[in-house]
Amino acid sequence: MRRPLILALAVLLCAPLAGEAEIPRSGLLTLALAASGEAAEPPRPCFDFALKVLAPLRPPIPRIEGRDNSAFGTYPNGIDWAAGRAVLEMPIAALYAKLLDHRTVKDMKKTTLATTVLERPGYLDFHHVDVVVTLRALFVKVKVAWTEEWGYSLMEGTREAPRKIVVSYQKIGGSRFIKHQCGSYVLQALDEATTDLSLYDEIKADHRSAEDTRNMHAGTLRTLRGQGP
Question: What number of CA atoms fall less than 13 Å from residue 139's CA on the CB side?
Fold first, then answer.
């Protein structure tokens, strides 16, 4: 029997370690398929990065004075979505630098990243990001891997003094555990020291809810503000 199939069977048979989050059995089946090397279906693209992306995937939710705003839900086709909006006490250039580091928006306790910087006409920056998440299930570790592409469009100002930036990303291949994933972040300078940030993500993945994505946004905002987990 080939080693990937042995690993798949091990995932199906194992139970979670004491004190660790339980992975439902249907989830173990999904992870087993990924571990066995079964090819994933190509995800539906959200963006055509051959052209400069000029607008976010969805309009930002309203900004609320004095506090962060958030919303989440599920579309009729089963895709979960979450949106957030916040004012951050930092210049737009500093916020942009933080968002160029993909560790800002990932759970690095269980994730490894490899970023390839590419040249793409019309974009401030363009990245391919290989993501690997390691999940433990008793005596095996299962790696769930996929690839994202990220485009950063300057909408107002200059590279040296930006005023508005639209960030767009989408999954372009990898594990069938994530059937669909993409999103947009919009950075708008309010003045020299504060920036309006809107966040939007949509995802269809096993055992991932819209509320989970809303909570991810809250974690990203805490990281950006230097507040820790």
Answer: 8
β-pair partners for 181: 203
Greater confidence (74 vs 11) lies with 74
In the β-sheet with 111-118, what is the strand arrangement from edge to edge?
69-74, 80-88, 195-205, 178-189, 162-174, 140-157, 125-137, 111-118
Separation CA 122–CA 140 (nearest Å): 44
Angle 60-221-172 (CA atoms, 0-180°, nearest 5)? 65
CATH 3.30.530.20 fits 42-224, yes or no: yes
The gap from C-alpha 218 to its chain's centroid, in whole angstroms, comes to 13
Q: Dihedrals φ, ψ of 19, to 5°?
A: 85, -5
Element at 88 (helix H, strand E): strand 80-88
pLDDT of residue 139: 78
pTM (2 d.p.): 0.80
Domain boundaries, the chain: 42-224
